[in-house]
Amino acid sequence: MTKMMVQNLSSRTTVEGLSSLFSEFGAVRSVSLATDIMTGRCRGFGFVHLDEPQTGVALDALNGRLFGDRVLSVTYEKKRE
Fold first, then answer.
1. Residue partners of 65: CB distance under 8 A and separation at least 6
2. What is the full per-residue pLDDT of the chain (81 aa) written as tens digits?
3. How many CA atoms lie within 13 A of 34 on its CB side?
4. Can you count the helices (H) and strands (E) in the chain?
5. Cα(25)–Cα(40) distance, integer angstroms
6. Comparing C-alpha atoms, which of 4, 5, 8 is closest to residue 66?
7. pTM for this model (two decimals)
8. Domains defined for the chain, CATH in brackets
9. Which of 22, 43, 74, 76 lies at a 20 to 30 A Cα distance from 57?
10. What b/e readout covers 21-49, taking b as 16+ CB neighbours within 10 angstroms?
11. Residue 11 CB neighbours (<10 A)
């Protein structure tokens, strides 16, 4: 599995909505959103795990795509050093 970071999400984004978007490209293994502690709303970014063969296609198709009222930025997760 490969983890992708999705940025520029609306505060109204849900795990279900993001999962549905990525499911067009294959089996979504997991979705997690960074959420605000006080409100529980999305803080603008999250992570999606897809099976390896689908990640490149999903990244190419969704990076720069309009989702809600935002243009997504989708990249491979960078490992912290």
1. 71, 72
2. 678 999 999 999 999 999 999 999 988 999 999 999 999 999 999 999 988 777 888 999 999 999 989 999 999 977 655
3. 11
4. 2, 6
5. 28
6. 8
7. 0.88
8. 2-71 (3.30.70.330)
9. 43
10. bbeebeebeebebeeeeeeeebebebebb
11. 13
